[in-house]
Write a structure and sequence with these properties.
This protein has 106 residues and is of the alpha+beta class. It has helices at 10-17, 59-71, 97-102, and strands at 21-22, 27-28, 35-40, 44-49, 79-84. The chain is globular and about 40 Å long.
């Protein structure tokens, strides 16, 4: 049960999502650039995210893990809306510096 009384800041949301790993590549979904947007309102957290490919076999697991990570941040009764989007398509250009270094793409 969450002890939070107010909605988290976007940075806190992204920090929580860093605990969600894409097992196919071994990196978190934030550094991979899979989190496209975060919107926070009074009682709802909306996150747009994508997968590296529409055929990603780990998609459901990643969504479940993201939901669990976010639920720990939110006050009781707050709603989590995870929206899986495919536009714009994900590409390596969306990755953060940490992910680029991980793959050896300086």
């Amino acid at each position: 049960m969450s002890m939070q009384s107010k909605m988290p800041a976007e940075e806190d949301v992204r920090t929580a999502l860093r605990s969600v790993i894409d097992p196919e590549v071994g990196l978190n979904i934030v550094d991979l650039g899979l989190v496209y947007g975060v919107e926070i309102s009074d009682n709802k957290l909306h996150v747009d995210l994508t997968m590296t490919t529409p055929a990603c076999p780990m998609g459901e697991m990643i969504l479940d893990n993201a939901r669990q990570a976010l639920a720990a941040l939110l006050p009781a009764g707050a709603e989590i809306e995870l929206n899986l989007v495919w536009e714009p398509p994900w590409g390596p250009d969306k990755m953060g510096e940490h992910a680029r270094k991980y793959f050896g793409w300086g």
